[in-house]
Amino acid sequence: MNDRIAEIKRRAAKRRKQRQNQLPKRNNPGPAQHIMRDEERYGGSGYSSYESGPDGNGGHPLFNKELFLFKILASAILVLVVAIMFQNPSGVFEKPRQFVSKTMEQSFQFAAFTNWYEEKFGKSLALLPLPNNSAQPQVNPDDFVLPASGRVFESFEVNGQGVMVETMAHSNVEAMNGGFVSFVGVKEDTGKTVIIQHADNSYTWYGQLGEVEVKLYDYIETGDVLGKTTVLEDGSKGMFYFAIQKDNEFIDPMQVISFE
After folding, report:
1. Fewer CB within 10 Å of terminal CB in the chain, N or C?
2. Which residues does 214 contact at the CB level (< 8 Å), separation at least 6?
3. What is the mean pLDDT of residues 32-61?
4. 125 pLDDT band (50/70/90 cuts)?
5. What is the spatial distance between Cα 79 and Cα 101, in angstroms, rounded to a whole number?
C-alpha cells in the first residue's frame, strides 16, 4: 500500500513538473507589473498624467493644441473679412455690413455699458485712453446740439422715420448728442449715413450726407462734426436726413429738438 501511495505521488509530481516546463519563462513580477495586471483586470490600459498628455507628447489632456490654433486662425480671418467689408464702400457689401452692425448693436450695447462702467468705477472704458476732454456727457435735452441750421421741408409724417432738412450748401452736420458710431455706410433710403449709439440706448441717424468724417466705433462728443450736407444740383442749398430711434421705434425729431 505504501508503495502504491508513493507511486501516485511521484506521478503527480511529474505531471506538475511537465506543466511548469510548458509555461513560458518570465521574470519575477515587479511592482510595475502588478499595477499593470490590476489595470488590465479593471479594463484600463495604464495611468495617464498631465505631464504625458493624451498623445504622450505632453500638455493638458483636455487641451487640443491643433484645435486651439485653428480657432485663432479662423477668428483672425473673420476679423479681416469684416474689416475689408467696412473699408470697401462697394454696394455689394451693404447687406453684410448691415447684418454685422445690427448684430453688434443688439448683442452688445457698447455705449450703455460704457456709461454704466463710468458711473460705477469713475473711469472711461476704452482699449486706448480717451482724450482728457472726452468724458461722457449727461443725457439732458437742454444740452442737445442742432445738427445743422435749416428748415424742415419733409416732415416725420411723410415716411414715419425721420425728417429732411434744407441747409446752406456745404454745411457741417454735427452730433446732436455724444456716443459711439455704430454704423457708417450707404443705406438704400438715406444714402451716406452715420448712426450714433447713445448711452440711453437711443440712436440718432444722419443721412443724405455729401461727406463723412468719422469711422465705425469712433467716440463722438456732442457737437462733433460727422460730415457735410449733400449739395443740391444748382449748388445753392444743402440737405441732410435726421432721425431719432428709441426701443426699435422712430420718434418725431421735432418733439426733441427744433430746427426753426
Report:
1. N
2. 181, 184, 194, 220, 224, 226, 227
3. 52
4. very low
5. 14
